[in-house]
């Protein structure tokens, strides 16, 4: 039986950057990235054209993983749209309570990358559009009269949960956001808190 193949320089760079840009921010130095990945500087330019390309590739990978997590969580919650929507906040409670939680990768990147034309900004915007659509689809299925507006509100609650989880540990922001999400559903559709 042969040993599993060791990841190549491209994968090692992606792994290192995904880790370090989350724990230390997107302005982490190139030398630190190269050390963590154990690759030569040449590999960075050959595979990504430079640090900006590496950051963009990491965000592409992270957004795909996080979107898949939203879909998995919502699917596991069953068929009722209300349960699926509220399950998002139960998952956020787990994420925020995790020992490796350092806030929202995407908010941090958007704030740190001051160049308006940095490719990271469009990757983050597209990710938010996809998550918004995921929420909007279930709000539509629920019969919400303003599903796009409610999806905007849900995204705001998600962002707020991640920000508060990083800056005010121990405050249980996901539980508070879940209560507000229930109110959005109740107020806008006249649902009882116990179900449709």
Care to describe what's here?
The chain has 196 residues and is mainly alpha-helical. The protein has a domain of 135 residues: Tetracycline Repressor, domain 2. It is built from 9 helices and no strands.
Helix content: over 70%
Q: Characterize the largest beta sheet: strand count, sense, and whether it forms a barrel.
A: none
Distance between the termini: 55 Å
Shape: elongated
Q: If you average the pLDDT, what whole number results?
A: 92
Query: How many DSSP-defined strands?
Result: 0
Secondary-structure arrangement, i.e. CATH architecture of the domain at 55-189: Orthogonal Bundle
Q: Low-confidence runs (pLDDT<50, min 5 residues)?
A: 191-196
What attributes characterize this protein structure?
mainly alpha, Tetracycline Repressor, domain 2, 73% helix, disordered C terminus, transcription
């Amino acid at each position: 039986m042969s040993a599993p193949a060791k990841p190549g320089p491209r994968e090692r760079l992606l792994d290192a950057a995904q880790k370090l840009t989350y724990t230390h921010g997107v302005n982490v130095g190139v030398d630190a990235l190269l050390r963590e990945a154990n690759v030569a500087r040449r590999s960075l330019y050959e595979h990504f054209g430079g640090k900006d390309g590496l950051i963009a590739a990491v965000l592409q990978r992270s957004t795909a993983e996080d979107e898949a997590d939203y879909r998995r969580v919502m699917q596991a919650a069953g068929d009722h749209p209300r349960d699926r929507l509220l399950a998002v906040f139960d998952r956020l409670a787990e994420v925020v309570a995790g020992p490796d939680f350092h806030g929202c990768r995407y908010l941090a990147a958007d704030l740190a990358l001051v160049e308006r034309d940095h490719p990271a900004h469009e990757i983050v915007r597209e990710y938010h559009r996809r998550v918004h659509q995921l929420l909007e689809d279930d709000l539509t299925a629920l019969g919400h009269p303003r599903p796009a507006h409610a999806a905007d509100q849900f995204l705001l609650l998600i962002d707020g949960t991640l920000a508060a989880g990083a800056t005010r540990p121990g405050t249980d922001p996901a539980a508070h956001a879940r209560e507000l999400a229930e109110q959005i559903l109740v107020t806008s559709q006249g649902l009882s808190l116990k179900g449709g």
